[in-house]
Amino acid sequence: MQADIEESIKIYGKKIDELLKEIIPPDRDDYLSEPIWHHLRTGGKRIRPAICLITCKELGGNPDDALHFALAIEILHNMFLLHDDIEDEDTMRRDQPTVWVKYGVANAINAGDYLLARAYHCILISQIPSERKLQLLEIFNLTYEKTVEGQALDINARGATDYTVEKYLELVRLKTGYYLACGMVGGAVVALGNIEGTIDKIWALGKLMGPAFQIKDDLIDLTVGKGRGGVIGSDIKEGKASFLYAYTLELANNDDKASLIGIMTKQREETTDDEVQYVLNIYNKHGAIEHAQKYADDLIKQTYDIIDEIPTDNKAVFRDIANFMAQRMT
Amino acid sequence: MQADIEESIKIYGKKIDELLKEIIPPDRDDYLSEPIWHHLRTGGKRIRPAICLITCKELGGNPDDALHFALAIEILHNMFLLHDDIEDEDTMRRDQPTVWVKYGVANAINAGDYLLARAYHCILISQIPSERKLQLLEIFNLTYEKTVEGQALDINARGATDYTVEKYLELVRLKTGYYLACGMVGGAVVALGNIEGTIDKIWALGKLMGPAFQIKDDLIDLTVGKGRGGVIGSDIKEGKASFLYAYTLELANNDDKASLIGIMTKQREETTDDEVQYVLNIYNKHGAIEHAQKYADDLIKQTYDIIDEIPTDNKAVFRDIANFMAQRMT
């Protein structure tokens, strides 16, 4: 089944790309097309919208009815990347200067705002019954809002001395949980309507999968490394408020705590390799890596348990998607 | 009738403020309430939402049905102020530091994004029939999108050597025209439904009123002055691409043109009073102020002409609103 998901992503990806060019024409002389397409051309595998269309189809719906909603999710994703790059002061994305670096902060903020307008527009023009369209708009807006709430926690997590695992989980549920579930929820609503028991369970699924995959992602940084050359600890240099950081901060003595926060709040380029190693040593002292691994595995187990509870006949699609996402995380 | 509009703004303003506190609770510990309410507490007369409710009532509708939409316009307005302050690098607003100055750029962008989510939410929860709700969402989204398009032109107008009156008008129609009409259009839709002839005319009204009032506003800067102490020419210091600038740039010889652009693109604090006077002299040489006055008066005449064409019985409300807005401009 894994192969099917890969294959579907390829097929649906093309449809998504075609509609994207309709909704955001690439060569308009309006100071918006250019920065937006500079960003969009850096890539993206269209996994989020494809998951929406796969869900819709597997639950017996017509994926064409969900296409506009699926694209709206992809546009939202890119809007967040544009604004996040400014907020995180990231200068490069996929080997290209970020939009704010190339076109200035003003154009980058405004281009993100424009993407969002086009995302709502995309749902508003979709040819589906009014009630269903309003449901999709509610799902989309809730996802947008909760992700922004998560981002607020993320922005302010770095220097916080009272950061905890509970705060990390709240942040990740908001910032990645709704987002992960959104496509599946929308696909299910197009296929089945707004069936309360089902929709609630899919949202709950996102709130388990989001943290599970995020903790796995945090671990990758300390085991095989992220980015080119498999450098270990780039999250530490970035000052990312990871699960390991949250967990260790709760357990560390005052000296270690002060050191952790000190290194965390340093500018990326000022953090030395010795400091990264120092943080790793503190993590190891408290068994943070083993704990994180166990915690993520437990969340993944809960994910599969909740899938079993979804009251629809063909729920295999959710397991396939979870498997696919889990595989991408290793 | 003028007094009635003032009175209605006061009464409706209270209703708007009550709902605002429900939609965006002031004291939540989420890193969003604080920056947003720092901004909201700096004031605002709720004129935009009140105009929506006045239009709805005068056309025979129930203003309560338009209340959520009206508040969404007010929230949108404040979202734009938050993002615009970053984009324009404005450090003060109504005697208070702007949000990005007080809470950082990251929190200010994100707080703006949150306001937008709440604006859509506000319309989505309003208790009106689905079809009508979708119409309001379309009106709102169109306004948001077109205002962002106008902002894109504005951001990039300053240093442009080929800036023209036509480009100025396009910018202002987009950035202020939809925005001005939006409340009236929404109020009319709630009262009358989406009657094509009427709605089209109200949008067209906005596209005349927007430029008319903006040109008047540009003129005020050069005649009585803006802000405290009536200092003349603060738009010139800010490098604002005004009607007078656009008009003069089209007529000026190459030397004057180079001087104009040079002064325009200078940082505000680096622009001297002599340079402001120099620009004023170039404007005067080309009769820009008289031309702008005439141009704005002509647009206002067209505004009243188009109001006559609106095919509804009680169209006096539009004239009252236009009068009220015109009065605020002198």
UniProtKB/TrEMBL annotation, chains A, B:
SUPFAM superfamilies: Terpenoid synthases. The keyword Transferase applies. It holds the Pfam family polyprenyl_synt. Belongs to the FPP/GGPP synthase family. The keyword tRNA-binding does not apply. One of its GO terms (molecular function) is metal ion binding. PANTHER family: GERANYLGERANYL PYROPHOSPHATE SYNTHASE, SHORT CHAIN ISOPRENYL DIPHOSPHATE SYNTHASE. CDD domains: Trans_IPPS_HT (cd00685). It comes from Candidatus Scalindua brodae. Its cofactor is Mg(2+). Keywords: Magnesium, Metal-binding, Transferase. This is Short chain isoprenyl diphosphate synthase. GO terms for biological process: isoprenoid biosynthetic process.
